[in-house]
């Protein structure tokens, strides 16, 4: 998959899970601190990632700091593609 | 020997600390020595109660077989859900046997520390299944499970984190930094546990509810609940600080268990600050897994329903883990309901969204939270049951 298309799909997915377009406007924003993600939504995101890209990330695989911004989520998934 | 209570414990700790400090200061590897010290402390813990010591040996043998069979199977054949469930059930079987036995006043398979070590055993199995632990030696496994500083009452450490430190050698300055923190934690923990918790315990004088003197009796009950809450905090946080301090001497950073819990602004906040290693373990290995299964199989249409189910399961389990008694189970259910109610309120209420950042709102929220927390402790301590039944 092309990086650009992949990024767009990831952005759509994050917006979908967070339920707010604003979640991806600032891609280095801490999504947990800003209230867009909580442990519940984070799991939904992991399940969507698995469904869409076949990339499985276990709940304790990464520290929260490794996946707390839009850019970091994109990087972690891309690395595993 | 009672860890962190008996004088003899502190004397032995001081003696065995000397070689650790010498190793650390010289920039040498401490973990193998630390493992030997753990074994020594376990002998001292159980030598007067050989039965429990034997239970521990049986436990370790069982868990070792399960963990290493799981590891071998996972490496050769990949994930298999049914075997994973079987491994988890077998690994918690000793704890369940012990807790159910305790209901009938029988001591089956129990030993001091079984409640805490079980979290560690189960975590290893879950992360083997997840593919996060691919290699592990018996030395690494036992070193993690049996580490003396956190053996009896936590904090509940994680194996991959612990393992990294087992293989680590500190620079002299890094070690000295950790050591000085550790000594400070030991002292502060001793003050918490021996001075402050004692003070609050003296003020905890539960009495049966007196209907003839309603006013003062209610005030007494509230005073007792607060005294008990602060006693619990200083007792447990003091113990944890001492455990962190003792661990630091051996080059181990145990995770913290408390972060100003009485500052909490809501119950979710409270569980991020109180007994953190327990609540984060439950979040990672129970809540998140239930939520994941529920989302995958689309059990519920709404996210809030799923979250509430997760919270109820999490906290009920926490209650049972403390012990199968009405007080503990009600305590678990109580917090499950509070967390669920908080989730619904914060997600649905416009009032909350409008006011959550205002000082007045936060002050009110803090006041309600601390009183709900103290009411929880009154359930936990059995004080409330005593008040009701007289």
Structure in words:
The complex is a heterodimer of chains A (81) and B (390). Chain A is mostly helical and 81 residues long. Chain A has helices spanning 3-18, 39-53, 70-80. The longest helix of chain A is centred in the first third of the chain and has 16 residues, at 3-18. In chain B, α3 (50-77) packs antiparallel against α4 (81-103) and α12 runs antiparallel to α13. The mean pLDDT of chain B is 93. Chains A and B meet through α2 of A and α11 and α12 of B.
Describe the secondary-structure layout.
The complex is a heterodimer of chains A (81) and B (390).
Chain A lengths: L2 H16 L20 H15 L16 H11 L1
Helix pairs in contact in A: 1-2, 1-3
Chain B lengths: L6 H19 L5 H16 L3 H28 L3 H23 L10 H16 L8 H9 L12 H8 L5 H31 L11 H36 L17 H5 L4 H21 L6 H20 L3 H23 L1 H6 L3 H22 L2 H7 L1
Helix pairs in contact in B: 2-3, 3-4, 3-5, 4-5, 6-7, 8-9, 9-15, 11-12, 12-13, 13-15
Give structural attributes.
heterodimer, A: 81 residues, mainly alpha, Non-ribosomal Peptide Synthetase Peptidyl Carrier Protein, Chain A, 3 helices, 0% strand, B: 390 residues
Measured between the Cα atoms of the first and last residue of chain B, the distance is: 37 Å
Task: Count the E strands of chain A.
Answer: 0
Q: What is the number of helical segments of chain A per DSSP (H or I, 4+ residues)?
A: 3
Order of helices and strands of chain A: HHH
**What share of residues of chain B is helical?**
over 70%
- Helix percent of chain A reads 40-55%
In what range is the share of β-strand residues of chain A? under 5%
Computed over alpha carbons, the radius of gyration of chain B is 22 Å
Approximately what portion of the residues of chain B adopt beta-strand conformation?
A: under 5%
Give unreliable regions of chain B as ranges: none
> What is the architecture of chain A at the second tier of CATH?
Orthogonal Bundle
* Biggest protein-protein contact in the assembly: A-B, 11 and 20 residues
